[in-house]
Structures are given as C-alpha cells and as structure tokens.
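Re: your question from the hallway

Yes, I did run it. Sequences:
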Amino acid sequence: MRVSLNWLKDFVDITLSPLELAEKLTLAGLAVEGIESPGEDITKVVTGQILKIERHPNADRLLICEISFGENVPLKIVTGAPNVQEGQIVPVALEGAALAGGLVIKRAKLRGVESRGMLCSGQELGLNAKSLPPEQAHGVMILPADTPPGLDIKPLLGLDDTILELELTPNRGDCLSMLGAAREVAAILKLPLKYIPPEVEESLPPCADRVKVDIEEPQLCRRYVARLMTGVKVGPSPLWMQKRLRAVGVRPISNVVDVTNYVMMEFGQPLHVFDYDTLLEGRIVVRRAAEKEILVSLDGVNRELTPDMLIIADAKNPVAIAGVMGGLETEVTDRTANVLLESAYFNPASIRRTSKMLGLRSDASQRFEGGIDLAGCRRSADRAVQLLQQISGVQVLEGAVDNYPSPAEPKMICLRPERTNFLLGTEITGEEIADILTRLQFDVKDSGSELIVGVPSWRGDVSMETDLIEEAARLHGYNQIPGTLPNARTTLGKRTPNQLFRENVKDILASCGLNEAITYSFFSPETADFYRLPPENALRRTVNMQNPLSEEQSVMRTWITPGLVEALKRNYNRQIRSGAVFELGSVFVPASRLPEEKTMLAAAAMGESAGGWNRKVMPLDYYFLKGVLETLFQQVGLTGFFFEAEYSNPSFHPGRTAKVFAGEQELGVLGELHPEVLERLDLPIRVVAFELDLDRVAKLSAAVRKYQPLPRFPSMERDIAVLAPRDVPAESIREAIGRSGGHTLTSVSLFDVYEGGQIQAGYRSLAFSLKFQADDRTLTDEEVAKCMDSVSAELDRKYGARLRTE
Amino acid sequence: MKEKLQKIAAEAVNLLSSSQDLEEIEKIRVRFLGRKGELTQVLRGMGALDEKDRPRIGQLANEIRARIEEELTGRTALVKEKTIRSRLLEEALDISLPGTAPAHGRIHPITRVRRQMEDIFLGLGFEIAEGPEIELDYYNFEALNFPKDHPARDMQDTFFIGEEFLLRTHTSPVQVRTMERTAPALPVKIISPGKVYRRDDDATHSPMFQQVEGLLIDTRITFGDLKGILDLFVKEMFGTATLTRFRASFFPFTEPSAEVDISCVMCGGCGCRVCSQTGWLEILGCGSVHPRVLEMSGYNPEEVTGFAFGMGVERVAMLKYGIDDIRLFYDNDLRFLNQF
Ligand SMILES: [Zn+2]
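Structure:
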C-alpha cells in the first residue's frame, strides 16, 4: 500500500526523515519496500493561465500560447499539445526549470518563434500516467479553473510529498489506510494521534423516512449504514483531493467517486454510492443472489450470480455484488441528483470467495477480506458526507439508517506479564507492557498480577494472549531481546541410516564421474508418448495438477529418466555433447489415499568421457553405466545382483537393455534409449540411462561388513581364451568356468573379447584370467592342470566352446 | 718380474680410468684379479723366483693387487654415479603437461548447501525429519493455523492435486506430522529439509525449490533462544562477522513472528545492488510456535513452548555462490554444475 507522508501528517506530527521512519516501521512489522519522492527533481514550475492561443506561422502542429502568471508580464510559450484552450490553467516550466528525470528547460526558438518555457504534462511532472484522466495522459495537464495563476506547482500537485510503499502482512488489514498507518506510527514514535470526528450539517428530514435497509444475511453482512444526500452536482474534485488520491495511486474521476475512494484510503472503509432514484422503493436488501440471477456490473459485463454470492438488491433486483462491484443501472452519473451512500461490513471469507470466483479483486475487496473496522462504518459514512458537503455543497438528510443487528462486544483478554517474559526470554516490566498496549490504543487495566486488555474494534487480528505478547515484543523491539541458547535436554543429532544411505549413494555416483542433477518433479503428459509407453503401462498412471503453470509441467513424474534426458538435450543443444548425470528423488504413483512417493535413482549419459594427451576417450555407453552400477553395488554392499537381457521395454533399445536384479527382486532397468524415442525427442545422439528403485537397493544393501582373512599361500594364475558361439552370453561362460573349476578357483575375470580376423564367423573369442588359491597349502601345477581340464570339458559340453591355446 | 708387475698395474689402472660401465669394469677385474687373471698368473709364477726375491716381489704383488682393487672400487662408484645421473637426465618429464584427472562428478550446489545447513543443526542436536511432497490441506495449512478462505493463504500460491491434495508449499507439514507422532513426549528437535512447490516462475522464484525448516519444542524454550540459535547458524553459514536483524512479521503458525535479515554478504552492510542499498538481506522467517498449532498437534501450550524457522536453500546458495538467477539450479547446464 502507498502511504502519503503529507496525508499521514494530518494524524501524527512526524519530524523524522522518511528513511528513519521507514526503518522503524520495517522493524515493527510494516515493511517499507520503497520510498518515492516524485517531485524531488522539480523546480521552477508554476501555474499559468492561457490568455490567448495563436497558430504557429511555420508549423501546423505547434501553437503559440500567451501565458499569464498573475501580476507579471505574460510570456509567449510554444507548445505541441493538442488539448490546450484559452482560459485554462496549466503547469508551466519557466526558463531554468527542472522537470522529473532531470530535464532542464531553456529559452529556445521553435521554428523561428521564441518560447520562454514549456507547458507540462503530468508525466513530465513525475505523475504516473495511470493516475491521470485518459485525455490528459498524452497532453498538457489541465488544472481546475479556479486555480490561481503564479503558484508553485509542487505543493499544489503533491510534488512535495514522499510516498512510502508498505508491504503489509495479511493479518494487518487495519493498516490499509492512512489512519491505520498513522496509529502504528504514533504508537512506535510515542506521539499522540490527532483525530477529529467528522461533523455533518443536516438540513433535511430524516434519512430513515426515505431509505429502508433489510439485512437477510446477518452472518455475511454484520452492519449496513446508509446515508442520503440530495442536490449532488457531479464534477471534478478539488486539486487537494486529487493530489492525495494520486499520491496513493488512485486516479481521480469525479467528486462523488473521489470522495468514496478518499475515505477508503483515509479510514480503510470501502464505500459505495447508488443513484437513489434508480433504487426501487428506495430499498436496500442485503441477501444471497438467487440461482441464475443476472447483474450488469459497472464494467458493462453481464454477470450470472449464484447463491454463494452476497448481493445488494433494491425491492426487487440486484444492484451490486456486495463489496466487490456495483451495478451499471444504479451508477451515479451526471444526471444523478440524489445519492445513497453505503458503508457496510461484509464477511471477509465471503467477499474473498466471491471476488475470486468472479476474478474481480479491487482495493475495496482487498480491504473487506482483511476485515474492516465494524465500529467505523458510521464514522466513515459521516466523513464522506462531510467531504461531499465541503466540495460540492450537497444537502444532507438527517441521520443515517444504521442496520447493525448484533453490535460487537469489545474483546477482553488477560495478559500475564510473567508469561510474556517467560515466552520471550525478557524482563519487561508490567508498566512497559501496559504503556506499549496503551499507545496501540488497547484499553489496559492493571489487576495486580495480570493486565485486563480491551482490544480496539479495528484489531481483528488480536484475539488471544499470544497476540498481545507479540504486540509487546514488536514495540519493545525484537532487537532488544537478548539472544540465548536453549536450556533444554541434550539430544543426539544424527542422520537416519536411510538418510546416510542416500547421501552416500550420491557421493559414490559423483566419484564415478556423474554430476548430480536436480530436475522438476513434474513433466508433460506427452512424456509417455515420447517414451513409447503403451496405454496400459504403469508409468502412464500419473498424479495430475489441477492448476499447473503450463501443460508441459502438469503431471507429477512417474520416473526420473525423462527429466535427466531433457537436461542432457538442453546441454546438447548448447554444444555440450558429452555428459553423465544422475538424480535421486521422488516419483509419484496414484494410490487410494495420498499418492505413493517412491525414491528412485536414475542416471543418463551421452557422448564420451574426456580424453587427454595420454589417455583415450571412453564412450559413455551401456557398459559405462553398467560399470557405475557394479561399483555402486559393491560400495554399498549389495551382493547377488545380476543383469538379465530385456527385450520388451518400450522405451529402450531391445538389444542393449537389461533388467537389474538382486536375488528375486527386480531393482530397475539399464539400457540405451530406443532410437525411436531419441528421434521423437529430436536428440541426435545415443543416450543410455538407468533407473532403480532406491528403497529396494537400500533394503538389500549390507549395513554391516565382515572381514575375510587374507590368503596365506600363493595363488596361481592361468589365462584362457574361449572360442564360443557369439550368442552365448559372456556371463554364462564365466559362470560355467566358475562352476567347473573346483573349489580352489577363487576368481574368474574376463579381460578381452575378440571377433573377426581369424575367428570363424558366428564365433568370438573370450579371454579369461583364472586365479587358483587354497587356504591350507601351496597348489601344485598338476592340481591346477586338472582343474583346467575340467573347465575345458565343461565348456565343450555346454557350449561347444573350445579353449584356444596361445 | 718386477717390470711385469708394474706393467700389469699400469695397464689395469689405465684401462679402468677409461672404462665406461660396470660390465667393462667387471671384465677388467676378471682379467687382472680373476682366478686366471694376469696378476694371479704372475703370482703363480713366483715359484720360479729366487728365494731371496720372493718376499719383495710378493709384497709388491700384494701392493699392486691392493692398488687395483682400490681403483676398481673407486671407478665402480664413479661409473655408478655417472650411470644414474645420465638415467635421471634421460627420464626427465615435461612437468608442465596436464595431469591425468580421475573422472569425478560434482554434487549439486543445492545438495552441498543443504548438507552444510543440516550439519550445523545436527551439531546442535537436531534430527532430520522427512515427509511427503504431496500433502493434505490439513497438514499444509489447517494444522498450521491457516483458516480456509483466509488472505494468509495468498502468501503461498499453491498447486492443487485434484480436490483433496496439494503440493506442499513449505516443509512445515513435516513439523506437524512429527509433533503428532511425538506428543506428548519431549523434546521435539528436528529440521525438515526438502522440496516444496509454489506457483511462481521468475529469476527469484522457482515453481519447485528446497527449504530447510526447524522446530524445537520443550518446556522452557524462549523467543530469545530462537534468536541465539539462528545467530549461531548465520555466523556458521556466512562467517562470524555476519550480523542478524529481527523484524516483526506474520506467519499463521508462529507468534511472535519474525523475518531475519543478515548483514549483506556482498558489501558487508554498506549498501550495494544485491541488498538494494539497505545493507541487509532477508534470509529466513521464524517465530515462537503458535499455541493453536501446539494444541492441534497434541501439546498443551501452557506447559510447552517452542520455536520454528524456515529458509530457502536456493536463497542461501545464491548468496553463498553469487548466483543471480534461481532457474540455473534446475536447468542442469553441465557448465554450471561443474563449478561446484
Ligand atoms: Zn549489499
């Protein structure tokens, strides 16, 4: 909210600089987000009257105006503004004047005619275009006709004002007005609040004779004050009112509208005016809309109402959506003679629902939502009437119709100073607490050990002792409260095994050369199509957002891989064509109650590892990620894992994909993405990926490790090359060797694969290194030779594989 | 005989002085001192000498043997040293060539900063609690004292999942769940790190981001304790010279509530672009746990008190690393990730 310092000074005598004031407000919870001094740069701009307008002899678009400043000699000034007329009062920048943004005005010749200054637009004076009438947004600013010429423009337009931009928290709706802000300022600065109740001259018979107000929904409308005025002449409001409205960001429109806005900004009470003569039977009925009832709102839109909405009706028809928007039919216009003024209290939640439903949020609805001062409705109505009387000379009917079915009782709260200090860790005296609350206009009575505190009607946010303790702390100053360390039980701070496991997995993968990525938890519903998932595929069952930012981010991810591949693609498009990333995070599966959240570990890679002058590059392919998984499993102590060829995963290359198992449990998938997937993703490079159910991995990983004694006798190594049909998996041969090599065979590792050359077609040569070792003796050559024979026999029997001798 | 011996000596010394390697030296040793060596041969021929000449010649022969042996030792040492020196020269590397970097990936900056934050609180005896990212309205809002249709809900623009669920807008639901689980036991001393979601997307807001929140509930926890703990945290995280400033604020689930500013890490508080010339940077929100929240979670607010705080991990990481666009964290550009 914009707060005008000049306006604020109506209520508090502030002598602090704006910066100091801003700091104090900010610390007390009314955050000042900005300080504006719109007229800071402006000098030597005065009001002038246009005496005469002549055409410029050499330019069609230019006019020569003779400007009077009262006593001095008139000056000739050339202008290009189309909206000037003789007799108008306009702001004139004299020679040497400075305008907003630092522009300096000099005497100048425009097409041969000397100009002794410049006629100014509102923007040149630093006013926001939105706060000006549309016809003046692009021309010279026209001042009211009764403005005397020769006056300094700055106080006249409020250019000597300073604006504080307040960022209020939602509990402080009471500060959404100059008076509300002033109350805080007065309390913080320990200054008195100046406030004079409005006085109205009532010259006509009682209002109640002509106006009737029925509240059918006292829950939704707790109070409705109506006042009636006659002899209204709609016209512009005076400059002093316009400048204040402009200062707080409201565009002046006409005296009647401006007065309602002025009072809203001053007291925080939104007001509405009706053309009384358009109200059937002069009646106001506050009720719920009937089903399908229609109202043409002020903006000319046909609005279909629902019974959820509170409306104002006359004897028959809706005339306004309560607190949200008025109706076109009953709008105050130039022809209006009698004005009915509404000052009411509507239920915050109801206004909030209705304005959200209709997409109509306004200054007024915002204030109703925050909860306005129930006790202030009448005062605000009186203030508006007083102002209208002042500026347009209306006559006022006596009194008001004030329908207030159950007046609010003042809230009383017990406050224990001892408890206050206990909660805050302070030693504030009861007197100081009482003083703070009194400054905030709470009604405080000391009853010995407790304070009995009456809450002001506008403080809807205060309803219990803690609320008062906060008030005391806030004005005492948070920064006066000493920092201490808790006097609490000693506890052991530690990560759970599962938390340790997850962080460990990240470190292991990073040590394997993969970068940790974090991608969004949501993706596009099209992902399933990109990844060739058939209709019944489980990954298609998604948890969907109701109000996503975009369609591309509208479903919760069911697997992580697509996000990682998307990240690789972005890198690829930025010429980073190699890389390996992993992510550990949740995926979301619809369930009967809250969706199930599973922790997955996924990785994706493309291109090749960085080479070097002494090192070959290594492809980041299936075998790379397989090696990463093997390393991971070893590191976390997961044993008995194996890979099984997977031909039917729709997203993966059928010849380059494996299911990952540990014992009976399937852990996930590892493979190269299907070429069609890559084509659909428009990614012209092979990508490999894995995705594992990390909770399963965690469960199967050994938390405890056991030491194996080191061998005491030497080992013997034998290398063999096995010539086997190409389609026999290397792992099967390795297993066959392991099974047939006897119990002294302690390890079998593959170190070369060779095909082509002298190897016959359909075969390949696999070279294994076998290690034999006994834990009770040194093996002899003969023993090992025997084992090698049985290996050879088994391979021949099972796979028709022969040993190649070197 | 004498001449013969002296000739042998001269030749051996001469040969040794020009010998270049150990092999050659060994040959010389064998040639002169070996079992069939020249000196040995001469000594064997001593029998033919006069009785009176034998002692003299014998002594001379011994002297010559000793001399040759001395030369052998000296030359061996010299040649050895020369050999090693030339080998070292030959083997010299261009030490300016780049080293062979082991493949090593990086941990995401958000994870790094989150771990650092966690470690500080673990050191203070907090445990790490976790909860679901898709939540019930009850845990995300209602149990935290956000009434339905209240403007406070506008503070956190929410993604809804169907009619019933939502993406948690903060990790505070974990606090509620933990209190419910623990009550009436004490203390509750947790931090809850994790992903949270809000409908926002610009240079300073990401629809998904991470938070670390904390909660301490016991019988005599004060607002002053909150200040003390957070001051400790801030100094640990940003350096011991960092100042904190507490501003009054509002959160439905705490009262009194505060926003905490730290002295600007860029300018040290003098005012710069990052801190909008104020010298302060907003870093976290906190407060004493609202009695209604305690009550809803099963504690008696007359008997226990507590504090809660929460901060964005991205915000801390941006300040620590000087990052100016939050979206970089979730873009996963490898050139970005490789910097951490
Ligand atoms: Zn700074």
